[in-house]
Write a structure and sequence with these properties.
- The structure holds three protein chains of three kinds.
- Chain A is mainly beta.
- Chain A contains one helix and 16 strands.
- In chain A, the strands form three sheets. In chain A, strands 1-2-3-4-5-6-7-8 form an eight-stranded antiparallel β-barrel. In chain A, strands 9-16-14-11 form a four-stranded antiparallel β-sheet, with no helix packed on it.
- The longest helix of chain A has 7 residues.
- Chain A is elongated.
- The longest helix of chain B is centred in the middle third of the chain and has 17 residues.
- By secondary structure, chain B is of the alpha+beta class.
- Chain B has four domains: 100 residues, Rossmann fold (3-Layer(aba) Sandwich); 69 residues, Dna Ligase, domain 1 (2-Layer Sandwich), CATH 3.30.1490.20; 242 residues, 2-Layer Sandwich (D-amino Acid Aminotransferase, Chain A, domain 1); 38 residues, no CATH class.
- Chain C is an alpha/beta fold.
- Chain C folds into two domains: 241 residues, 2-enoyl-CoA Hydratase, Chain A, domain 1 (Alpha-Beta Complex), CATH 3.90.226; 169 residues, Alpha-Beta Complex (2-enoyl-CoA Hydratase, Chain A, domain 1), CATH 3.90.226.
- In chain C, the strands form two sheets. In chain C, strands 1, 10, 11, 12, 13, 14, 15 and 16 form an eight-stranded mixed β-sheet that branches. In chain C, strands 2, 3, 4, 5, 6, 7, 8 and 9 form an eight-stranded mixed β-sheet that branches.
- The chains are: A mainly beta, B alpha+beta, C alpha/beta.
- The interface between B and C is medium-sized, with 17 and 28 residues.
Amino acid sequence: MSYEMLLNEQDVSLEILARRPDLRIKSGDHVHTVTEVATTGAAFEVTIDGKSFSGWRYAIGDEVFVRLGTRSFIVGLPQAQLRAHSKGAGHDALHADMPGTVIAIHTQVGAEVKAGDKLITIESMKLQVGLVASRDGMIEGIHVPAETAFDRGALLISLVPLVIPEAPKAAK
Amino acid sequence: MLKKVLIANRGEIACRVIRTCRKLGIATVAIYHHEDRLAPHVKLADQAIQLKGDVPTASYLDQHQIITICQENGVDGIHPGYGFLSENAGFVEKVIAAGIVFIGPDATSMRLMGDKIRSRVFAAEHGVPVAPSAMQEGDLDSFLVQAEAVGFPLLIKASAGGGGKGMKIVRSASELREQITTAANEAQRYFGDSRVYAERLVELPRHIEVQVLGDGKGNVVHLFERECSLQRRYQKIVEESPAPNLPKALRDRICNAAVELAKAAKYKNAGTVEFILGADGEFYFLEMNTRLQVEHPITEEVVGVDLVEAQLKIAAGEGIPFEQSDLKQTGWAIECRINAEEPEKDFRPAIGRIGRLRSPEGEGVRFDAGIVEGQAVTPAFDSMLAKLITYGATRAEAVSRMEKALTELVLLGVPNNIDYLARIMRNAEFLSGKLHTGFLPQEAERLAAPEPSPDEQIAAVLAAAFLDVDFRRIVYAIPEPYASIGFWRN
Amino acid sequence: MTILKSSLNTSSEEFRTRYAHNKKLVAELREMQHVARMIRPQRDLDRLAKQGKMLPRERLEKLLDPGTPFLEFSTLAANRAYNGESPSASCITGIGTISGREVVIHADDSSVKGGAWYPLTVKKIVRALEIALENHLPMVHLCDSAGGQLQLQSDLFPDKYLAGRMFRNQAMMSKYGIKQLALVFGQCTAGGAYIPGLCDYNVIVRGTGAVFLGGPPLVKAATGAIVTSEELGGCDMHTQVSGTCDYPADTEDEAIRIGRDIVAQWELPKKWSIQQAAAEPPLYDPDELYGIIPDDIKKGFEMREVIARMVDGSRFHEYQPAYGNTLVCGFANIWGYKIGILANNGILFNDSSLKAAHFMELCNQNNTPLLFLQNITGFMIGTEYERKGITKDGAKMIMAQVGSHVPKFTVMCHASFGAGNYGMCGRAYDGRFLFTWPNHQIGVMGGEQAANTLAEVKLMQMKRNGLEVNEDILTEVRNQTLKAYETQTSAYFSTSELWDDGILDPVDTRNALGMAISASLNAPLGDRGYGVFRM
């Protein structure tokens, strides 16, 4: 298992090769001997191949702002890396959790949407709810028009992924 | 003296004004929008009142609400800071009508100087040099003829505008019509006024401004000049005082011109007269800013005065607290504007959160900030987060202190220009003081962030990885004997 | 504890001959393992690539914590069965760590006949489940199997320890609080559907993962309805409608990431604590084991030389050093864990049997796990020994061993013949793990003894029936027996039939035991019986 990250929007991967007697981490073609010297809140110090690096860092969500000497970096943790490659978990089909009526449709067939975009507003039991895209994708179909009633479980909107993940390599 | 001052502003300038008020024993009232509820100016003031309204900027511009707050809380003076209502003559009138002192110029001089065209005419009438120019009075066709007569290269500007919006450079007659039309359209869009004017473009100009104080009765002093040539997207990011490589005779002429203009306008309170200075030593009046400038601290450091204190005293009718002969430039001061922006992406404004803030300290270091850890940086407000000012006996000392202070300044959670500013401080051309408004584009390549070394990259990645619980788990939480055996397959 | 003093002469002719012999055996083992693990027909690889599927070992490497060991079980299971059509018995099992938790992993291998289960596949998966159950280890299943080989159903379906046992063990595990996770990468049909179905957690990959009792062909045959795999039992159906699956994943990578995160939520085990010290490597180089292990089944060797190359610091506290010296007993540490070792240095006599029984009682009293290093040709026979009660003393050894509440581990080092196998914790004795060295041979007796015994019986039969003694017939009996024994006593036959948990390169023994002991400590101890009877 390797640990996939982003460094200033570029892919980086860390692979732990050993922990004893020293932590050895591979990145790219290089293997580094790493020691985490100190972690006190925002301040950090690591030695890499005997060289000391210290600075400051702060995480917002899955992004970490790092200041190292006179350099600042934005590092994306694996979640950010996954997000950047839009392979998030989610459903292709948006089903109704309860029976109701479509109040408004906020998208159209063929539109590209991002996870979290509001796609449709439904009303059910006097309660209006906006339903959002659970993944990045393209609207494949809108299955219930506005002002129309539907039953629990009805398919409202279907999505197709924008990026078809590449098939892994065949075995050696 | 005033008893209770409301600061109709936010951020570092609100904090700055509160500090001087406190020194003078004046009570302070801060106003804030809900989004700013954690901002330091709210905590720093004696009293803080929340503004109603959904849109943060609109709330700080809500004249009626602000005046009502003053009336309900016994406020006798309003300090507008910069931006927001600071140059709104209508507001000044309403404040005065409500019986409250406006800490700034009167509405008349504000209107006069706020109009680019009228202020230029006024300046020219009083012997202050202005660049050859043409003003649009009639239709576009007649303006074309006038503009061509000024001579190329030409700068087309919106009469009502500022901040570089709608500005166009025209180098030949063939592109004149098209550029003027575009500029007029933009002017209409940005400022609701399509009138434009054309002036001779000074190539590689320096931007020199003079701080003045007037008592409104024709008495004016100047507090020398500031060099504000380092600009990106027509906005200043580094200022210094004095201006480097400026002969004394020329400095005196520029400062005196500023004083003459302010005197003629019977200018009251603090103002700044901006000039462009050509490589040939010719200088032209650009505009006058009728407020306290962002970069006022460098003047304070070099001249040794408190400009806000002077503003308060003048507003209270105590007159200018010093004579011209009292004022001297000593040493050197530099200011860097710390902005939430990405220099690598054409200075695109950035948003985020002030996650970690560690201010630099040390001799000659001043950090004017209005931010605290945890505060969100949203697109609602200006991208300037703080100002870092250093002072030294010489320019070299001020620059070296700035470089060190920028290195020590930690501001994490929003992309910013700190590293970029530090690179300016190390730039050879900057160190030699050869400045002009095209400096940053000219030096762009040398100011670009160098590719981090592989070591730095892995260190940065590890610094982040070690914050992540998943990573820490795979590093530290592998049980024995698994951790000691390491990778092994039977 | 004292450091064992080796008297091994590494420059001797004997050492060099044995070294070369064993290196060759290990090279053969490695080659066979490589073929079983990696070599697949190109069309199967192409089919998987087309489906966007990873090979099971690629999945495994991504699932395990990076830079950690994986103790694989029975890599050469089924190597002597089904004409070699089921490498590794079409699945991978073993122990590793995921998100810092020790787990048993079972992965179907769809690069072999769609991952269909052979009888030995079932035996291997049942054994993995048994390991999980006995050691209270959580289990992760990587499901991608077409189901049971229908032609072989009678050998894999009906009996107590056949396919049904998988699901029985799964249910027992859950009952005892031992967590299970299934990652559904491919189809789980019929019985196979119960693997994710009986897991406490499961993840299914959109597009390729499917779970159903009857697949589309069966549905069509039974009801005439035409339905796609995805509609019938795909990711979205099971995660949104039936609730049979818990987590949808877009890709195999994502399923693995979710799986690692699920395991990260599991409570850390409260392991049984035994005496532990800081681990240190053996003082003597384990590589020298190759020069110690004989090149002939009839040749003996000094077990203390083996112990010296297996235990921490080569330190050994020998119990009763002057008594019953065909059995070496004593305390040592492996990867820091205190263990009691019983190692054969010859035939078991009355005194060595009593020593064994007494020492096992001491280990139980001290909560020290037992390690058996087998090189045993049996209990001593003959009038003298029967008169001394060798059967009675052997029974004591077996009784003490079976009644032990501490975990037991066995390494088949060279020979295991007759009742000695029982006393030294053979496969039937519920040791937690049993590993074999490639040189090892096992049988109720040695091939030659068996051939001679059967020839003797034949001869008696001829004489009893008044027939003329026919030497040709006797030779035929002798040769047939020898041939059958040669095949069946081999370590490869053992491991093919899952009589062990895999063949080990001798130098790997220390790591394998370290992980095995660590794994065993997850399960609570049984109840202690009597005190120590002095034998």
